[in-house]
Amino acid sequence: MQMIKKIILSIPLVLILIFSFCLVSSAEENKVGIVTCDVLNIRELPGTENKILRQVTHGERLQILESSEEWYKIKYNDDIGWVHSDYITVKVEPIGIGTINADYVNIRTEGSLSSKVITMRSSGARFEVYDKQGDWYKIMLEDGTYGWVYGQYISFREGTETSRGGQDVRDNNSGGHSSLGEKIVQYAKQYLGVKYVYGGSSPKGFDCSGFVQYVFKNFGINLERVAANQAKHGTKVDKANLRIGDLVFFDTNGGMNSIEHVGIYIGGGNFIHASSASGVRQVTISDLTSGYYSKTYMGARRYISD
User: Fold this and answer.
1) Of 29, 81, 84, 283, which residue is least crowded by CB atoms under 10 Å?
2) Which positions ≥6 away from 245 have C-beta within 8 Å?
3) Per-residue pLDDT for the chain (306 aa), expressed as one digit of tens each?
4) Same domain as 111, residue 76
């Protein structure tokens, strides 16, 4: 009888352990590591004394499988191995794209009705979704910060068409998640928050055209250094036919009808850029379809073919 009681009492503990393991495994599923050194060794086991399976170079993306002290178990193509945490930056990939399906929806600091409302969005606004807790979804806002929206007010569906602020922007990517445009955007996003520096063209500080040039150079695409010159090359693209990875240009010089600013279109009516705007002055994400950047928009160019 005592043995039966012990077994019964141990069942909840086993279930808790299993559930906890599932949560940890799930949490690692959408994490990637960006290589930050010139050459990184992938080893068979954690520890510098272990066999090197292969090497990867700066900017490569590694799928994070699990962590152990200062080491990450990763997957790169078909190889599974270990890399040291000092040489990668870990980023969380979105688990999906959500569309707000009602007007005046509250975005909160936490997944709770009692938490503070930080902003509101209306039907058609699209966001990358990074987490789900109960009935709440964690989304990334246009400025790169996070908020929570109640699940009833966000929808997930195929297709990338959005309409906001009275202007239509259609994402015409045909290459899926592996397209070069999306790889460029994901690479660019690792620099969110890097400070704006006039004349800057490195992760120590970017200006707008320096940021775009730096990102594209990582993919073997050489751009001119100045935004106005970047707008002279590539293929001209109508706003209604924008694809992820296209360059978008703006007149930010007080209506002089000259190109002074550039960013990279990331889909959903948004673009990533090194902003010199007062109170921002960093790499950030902004809305292309309404407000200031809608009014100052000058055109777009495509430098990639997929």
Assistant:
1) 29
2) 179, 180, 181, 182, 184, 185, 264, 265, 302, 303, 304
3) 555 544 444 544 444 333 333 333 333 457 888 888 888 999 999 999 999 999 888 878 888 999 988 999 999 888 899 999 999 988 777 777 888 988 888 999 999 888 999 998 888 888 888 888 898 999 988 877 889 999 888 987 543 333 333 334 445 554 443 478 988 998 998 888 899 999 999 998 999 999 999 999 989 999 999 999 999 999 999 998 999 999 999 998 876 778 999 999 998 888 999 998 877 889 998 888 877 888 899 999 999 975
4) no
261 catalytic residue (yes or no)? yes
SS3 assignment, position 3: helix
* Tokens matching residue 265: 């279109």
Q: What CATH number does residue 261 fall under?
A: 3.90.1720.10
Evaluate whether 283 touches 273 at the Cβ level (below 8 Å): yes
Domain that holds residue 148: 96-158
Note whether 38 and 142 are same-domain residues: no
* Active-site position among 37, 58, 84, 208: 208
> Which class for 207: exposed (0-12), middle (13-18), buried (19 or more C-beta within 10 A)?
buried
Q: Count Cβ atoms below 10 Å from residue 121 Cβ, excluding itself.
A: 23
Q: Is 208 a catalytic residue?
A: yes
Q: Give the start-end residues of each E strand in 44-174.
A: 52-57, 61-68, 71-76, 79-84, 88-92, 96-100, 105-108, 117-121, 126-133, 136-140, 146-150, 154-155, 161-164, 167-170
Shared domain for 194 and 284, answered yes or no, is: yes
Tell me the residue type at 79. D
